[in-house]
User: Which sequence fits this backbone?
């Protein structure tokens, strides 16, 4: 099992550009999450999904969108990138009722200039 | 606004000492509590979780929970330089969705 994979690892965007951060898990987990982590801070939940076709907002959803068409994939879309979106983005998944642990991907480091 | 508070540190302890990390939370209805370790430039990894009042031990790690005081702590015995990392406290605010609220993390430095 590869676990949770994220692409790209690094990206530099210009203000106003758009991009999609990819997240894939091969553990057949129902629950998936997107977090952002600013320097020296904890993780803030952006969006989450409890299963294919079901998504909801977290603490800091503004400027982002998600979709969940399959169990495996949970892409995060940034529209009109702003410097405030410079951060490290982590995707995580968990099995659901059989376990509470969230498994994290390696992260995407995004810089918006 | 549900909050989780940690002292950002750094907390510096000598090798072999006990490191004590603390966390308070605001949501009295929270049921499950987690400690994640994060090495610099890496993703968080779960090291302990606890949901009952009292202590839970796993090797050199002990998690302590006091729901009345809304307080969670992590003790690391016989601290090693490899324990140097940021420790994130997380509180599950919804068991239906698994949503976690994270503290800002405490940086631990273990000096040889």
Assistant:
């Amino acid at each position: 099992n590869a676990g949770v994979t994220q692409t790209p690892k690094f990206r530099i965007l210009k203000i106003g550009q758009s991009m999609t951060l990819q997240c894939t898990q091969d553990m057949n987990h129902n629950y998936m999450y997107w977090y952002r982590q600013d320097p020296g801070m904890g993780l803030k939940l952006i969006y989450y999904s409890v299963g294919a076709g079901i998504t909801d907002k977290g603490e800091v959803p503004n400027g982002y969108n998600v979709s969940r068409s399959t169990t495996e994939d949970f892409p995060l879309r940034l529209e009109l990138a702003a410097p405030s979106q410079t951060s490290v983005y982590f995707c995580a998944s968990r099995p659901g009722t059989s376990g509470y642990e969230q498994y994290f991907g390696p992260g995407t480091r995004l810089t918006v200039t | 606004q549900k909050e989780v508070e940690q002292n950002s540190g750094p907390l510096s302890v000598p090798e072999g000492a006990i490191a004590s990390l603390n966390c308070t939370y605001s949501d009295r209805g929270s049921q499950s509590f987690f400690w994640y370790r994060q090495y610099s430039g890496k993703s968080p990894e779960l090291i302990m979780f606890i949901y009952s009042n009292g202590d839970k031990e796993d090797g050199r790690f002990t998690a302590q929970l006091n729901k009345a005081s809304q307080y969670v702590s992590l003790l690391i015995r016989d601290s090693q330089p490899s324990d140097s990392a940021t420790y994130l406290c997380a509180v599950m605010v919804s068991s239906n969705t698994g949503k976690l609220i994270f503290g800002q993390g405490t940086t631990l430095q273990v000096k040889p």
Notes: The longest strand of chain B covers residues 85-94. Chain B touches chain A at residues 4, 6, 8, 32, 34, 42-46, 49, 88, 90, 92, 96-105 (CB under 8 Å). Chain B is about 0% helix and 55% strand.
